[in-house]
Amino acid sequence: MYGYESLAWIKDKDGNEYVCPIDVLKGDISDRDDLNEEERKQCMNVNQLIGTERW
């Protein structure tokens, strides 16, 4: 289980927001706007959890 401080929130170019464990992300995470396929498999699409109508 991950604590909040070990998670990164990434919003991709299509407007989807993902929450990812920092240790699965490659490279600099400070200005990310996309995930590669390997990273995407290990992250969770937040929009699928709560829907986009709340944002």
Number of strands: 3
Structural class: alpha+beta
Strand order of the largest sheet: 1-2-3
- Oligomeric grouping of the chains: single chain
**Helix and strand run:** EEHEH
**Whole-Å distance between the termini?**
26 Å
Radius of gyration, taken over Cα atoms and rounded to an integer in Å: 11 Å
Low-pLDDT regions: none
User: What is the tally of helical segments?
Assistant: 2
**Helix content range:** 10-25%
Key structural traits:
55 residues; alpha+beta; 3 strands
Provide an overview of this structure:
The chain is α+β, with helices and mostly antiparallel strands and 55 residues long. The chain has two helices and three strands, in the order ββαβα. The protein has helices spanning 37-42, 46-50, and strands at residues 7-11, 17-21, 44-45. A three-stranded antiparallel β-sheet has the order 1-2-3. Strand 1 and strand 2 (17-21) form a beta hairpin. The chain is globular, with a radius of gyration of 11 Å. The model has no long low-confidence stretch (mean pLDDT 82).
